[in-house]
Amino acid sequence: MLDAPLFAALRHLIERLPKDRFPRHDELNALAAPSWVSGGGAPIRFVPPGARSKEFSAQYEVRIFETGEVQTRPDNWHDLFNALVWLAFPKTKAVLNGHHYGEIRARRGERLRGTARDVLTLFDEGGIVVAAADAELAALLREFRWKELFWKRRAEVLRSMRFYVFGHAIYEKALEPYKGVTAKALIVDAAPGLLEAPLEQQLARLDARAAHYFSGAQALASTRTLSPLPILGIPGWEPANAREEYYDDSEQFRPGRLLSS
Questions:
Q1: Which residues make Cβ contacts (< 8 Å) with residue 147, sequence separation at least 6?
Q2: DSSP for 31-76?
Q3: pLDDT at position 112
Q4: Which of 27, 50, 86, 178 could connect to 23 by a Cys-Cys bridge, CB 3.0–4.6 Å?
């Protein structure tokens, strides 16, 4: 299962993990570069979780920001995928953590999380980075023209687009995928040469681009700024999508609102 195309962004990391068990914290930490830091500049380390409380989510982000400690439950897919995304997209995760920390401090005592943290959580849990070397294909995605994109222009998609899951909840769902799994897509313009580069080079460039995007306040203004993407429609990500009629399922491939580019 973990060798499926959906896990492509993590493949170079998964290959370095034990094959027959969950990795220990020290094994995850061995994969982290010293330069990878939290939103507050503390070196990232994966540690056992502390006691949970009603404020666990806020405490979790604050602890990462201040100490670099990412609480990771042993033998837990959700937390393992979160750790692997930290390792694959360290700059973007640090920017998201910094925003979480700032929002938590600014809204201390308020009951509502606010739009900014909703956006952060949507991408952190359910994001996907789409690298597109063809602006027309990116426009089709934004315009919900799924069959035209993934079937009629399938060869162009395979040649000119790359899809790298960011959200750790999407990875967890992919262990037992079901129709309708939808990610929130950050579409990044990419030169054709980047799409043919080694995976780790692609990820480093896309990580920097995603981190830059989320560094701007406009990225957090609305939960509607990222494009919905039914990920099982991506060519090769679901065996059934090798047939044209797969894309006629309006429950999975819904028309929708247009998004600003």
A1: 244, 247, 248, 253
A2: TS-TT-B-TTSPBPEEE------TTHHHHHHHHHHHH-EEE--TT-
A3: 63
A4: 27
Quick check: helix, strand or coil at residue 15? coil
Gap between the Cα atoms of 56 and 52, Å rounded: 5
Contact 147, 247 (CB under 8 A): yes
- Per-residue pLDDT, averaged over 92-102, amounts to 96
Continuous segment of H or E residues that includes residue 187: strand 182-189
- The model carries a pTM of 0.92
**Cα separation values, 47 from 70, 77, 107, 198, Å:** 6, 15, 27, 30
Cα separation of 25 and 2, whole Å? 20
Give every strand in the sheet of 227-230, ordered side by side.
161-165, 127-132, 182-189, 227-230
Tell me the mean pLDDT in the region 111-137.
92
User: Which class for 4: exposed (0-12), middle (13-18), buried (19 or more C-beta within 10 A)?
Assistant: middle
Distance in angstroms (rounded) separating the CA atoms of residues 71 and 69: 6
Segment 4-50, tens digit of pLDDT? 999 999 999 999 999 999 999 999 999 999 999 999 999 999 999 97
